[in-house]
Automatic annotation (TrEMBL):
InterPro entries given in the database record: Aminotransferase_I/II_large (IPR004839), Kynurenine-oxoglutarate_AT (IPR051326), PyrdxlP-dep_Trfase (IPR015424), PyrdxlP-dep_Trfase_major (IPR015421), PyrdxlP-dep_Trfase_small (IPR015422)
Single GO term (MF): kynurenine-oxoglutarate transaminase activity
GO CC terms: cytoplasm
Organism: Pseudoalteromonas maricaloris
Record keywords, A-Z: Aminotransferase, Pyridoxal phosphate, Transferase
Transferase in keyword set: yes
Name of the molecule in the record: Aminotransferase class I/II-fold pyridoxal phosphate-dependent enzyme
Cofactor(s) required for function per UniProt: pyridoxal 5'-phosphate
Family: Belongs to the class-I pyridoxal-phosphate-dependent aminotransferase family.
Domain of life of the native organism: Bacteria
Domain Aminotransferase class I/classII large: 26-376
CDD domains to which the protein is assigned, alphabetical: AAT_like (cd00609)
Length: 379
C-alpha cells in the first residue's frame, strides 16, 4: 500500500519505553508520571461510570467541564472566555492539535515549527497537504531568532506553532518573544497554534505567558492544553482547545468527525476535580519544582552539564564530557549498560545540530530519580 507518511516510523517514546522494559531500565524517557492521578478524581470517575453516565457527551464537551475550564482560565489568567462557544473538549491535546491543523492548513500551505518539535505536529500538517517549515533552536539556550522567522515567511505561510513551556527544551517563552510573534502574525495575517500543555508547570516564579492573555494574539489562536499533564492522567487522553468563536466553529466541524465526543465519565470527573480542588493546579509548579531539584541535586557530582529547566517535567543533559557517541547511540548505551532510559534530542529535529543532549523526565518518585542519578553519576 502507498504510504501517506513514508518518513514516519514508530514514535521515539514508544521505542524507548519498549527498550526500557526489555532491559529492565529505569524509564526516564517517555514523559508520563510514575505516580497516580488524585484519589478524588479517580473516585469521581468510578462514580460516574457506576451511575450510568456512559453515553456520548455533547460533541463540544460536557457543559460543566466547559464552564470549569472557563473558570480556571478566569482565575489563572484573568481572561474571560465563553465555555459554550470557545472551549472544545478533545481526546487529548494530540487530537486538538490534529484538528486545529486540519482546520487551517490546505494544500500547499506552510506552517512554521520550531525544532526540537513535538512529534505530532508535522504528520498532521502533511496529512492536511501542507508543509512544515522547520526553524532549528540549539543548545543551551534554545532561543528563537525572530529575524530568521521573519525571513522564513512567504505568501504560502499560514500559521506558526509555538509550545511554551517547551517539550523537550524545558524553556519558556518571554514577553519579548510574544511581542515579536505578535508583530509577525499581524503583519503577515497568520494564525497561531499555541501548545500550552505544560501551562501549569513553571519554575522559580517564572510566569506562564499564555496566548490567551494578549487579545491581539488570542484573536488568531488555537490554545491547546492537556488534562493528562495537569492531573497525572496521561492515559485518559483528555484535553481541550480554546479559540475565538469563528475559529471554534471550524474546529468543531472537524472534531465531530474525528471522535465526535470524548470520554463522558472523565469529563464529568474532571469538572468536579476543577471545582472541588482548585489547589491541585495551583500547587503543581511547586510539586514538580521539588522533583526537578531532587534530580538536579542528585546529578550535581556527575560529568553531565545540566541545562536550565524553566518548566515542563523534563531536564536536558549535555553529555559531551562523557562520550563521543551520537545521541541515539548514547541513549541505547544508557539503556543497555547503565540501566536508565532517556530520549535523544536529535529525533525532535528535521536537521539535527551537533549538540550532544538527552532528555530526562522527572515526573517520577524521588527514590526513582535518586537511583537513576546514582547510575548516571558512575559515568
Ligand atoms: N504537546 C506536547 C508538547 C506534549 O508534550 C504532549 C504530551 N506528550 C502533547 C502535546 C500531547 O498531549 P496529550 O497526551 O494530552 O495528547
Ligand atoms: N509527550 C510525551 C513525551 O514527550 C509522550 C507522549 C507519547 O508517548 N506520545 O515524552
Amino acid at each position: 500500500m502507498k504510504s501517506k507518511l513514508p518518513q514516519v516510523g514508530i514514535s521515539i517514546f514508544s521505542q524507548m519505553t519498549a527498550l526500557a522494559n526489555e532491559h529492565g531500565a529505569i524509564n526516564l524517557s517517555q514523559g508520563f508520571p510514575e505516580f497516580d492521578a488524585p484519589d478524588y478524581l479517580k473516585s469521581q470517575l468510578s462514580h460516574y461510570v457506576g451511575e450510568g453516565q456512559n453515553q456520548y457527551s455533547p460533541s463540544a464537551g460536557v457543559p460543566s467541564l466547559q464552564a470549569q475550564v472557563a473558570a480556571l482560565i478566569e482565575r489563572r489568567y484573568q481572561v474571560s472566555v465563553s465555555g459554550q462557544e470557545q472551549i472544545t473538549v478533545t481526546s487529548g491535546a494530540t487530537e486538538a492539535l490534529f484538528v486545529a491543523i486540519q482546520a487551517i492548513v490546505s494544500e500547499g500551505d506552510e506552517v512554521i515549527v520550531f525544532d526540537p518539535a513535538y512529534d505530532s505536529y508535522e504528520p498532521a500538517i502533511e496529512l492536511a497537504g501542507g508543509k512544515a517549515v522547520h526553524i532549528a533552536l540549539t543548545a543551551p539556550h534554545y532561543q528563537i531568532d525572530w529575524q530568521q522567522v521573519a525571513a522564513s515567511i512567504n505568501p504560502n505561510t499560514r500559521a506558526i506553532i509555538i509550545n511554551t513551556p517547551h517539550n523537550p527544551s524545558a524553556k519558556t517563552l518571554k514577553p519579548s518573544d510574544l511581542e515579536q510573534l505578535k508583530q509577525l502574525l499581524n503583519q503577515h495575517d497568520l494564525l497561531l497554534i499555541s501548545d500550552e500543555v505544560y501551562e501549569h508547570i513553571t519554575f522559580d516564579g517564572l510566569p506562564h505567558l499564555s496566548a490567551l492573555t494578549d487579545p491581539a494574539l488570542f484573536e488568531r489562536a488555537f490554545v491547546i492544553s492537556s488534562f493528562g499533564k495537569t492531573f497525572h492522567s496521561t492515559g485518559w487522553k483528555m484535553g481541550y482547545c480554546v479559540a475565538p468563536k469563528q475559529m471554534t466553529v471550524e474546529f468543531r466541524k472537524i472534531h465531530q468527525y474525528v471522535t465526535f465526543s470524548s470520554f463522558t465519565p472523565a469529563q464529568l470527573a474532571l469538572a468536579d476535580m476543577l471545582a472541588e480542588h482548585p489547589e491541585h493546579v495551583d500547587e503543581l509548579s511547586g510539586f514538580y519544582q521539588q522533583k526537578r531539584d531532587v534530580l538536579v541535586k542528585a546529578l550535581a557530582s556527575s560529568r553531565f552539564t545540566l541545562l536550565p529547566s524553566e518548566g515542563t517535567y523534563f531536564l536536558l543533559l549535555d553529555y559531551s564530557e562523557i562520550s563521543e557517541l551520537d545521541d541515539v547511540a548514547f541513549c541505547r548505551y544508557l539503556v543497555e549498560e547503565v540501566g536508565v532510559a532517556a530520549v535523544p534530542l536529535s529525533v525532535f529535529y528535521q536537521q539535527a545540530p551537533k549538540d550532544k543532549v538527552i532528555r530526562l523526565c522527572f515526573a517520577k518518585e524521588n527514590q526513582t530519580l535518586e537511583e537513576a542519578a546514582k547510575r548516571l553519576c558512575q559515568l
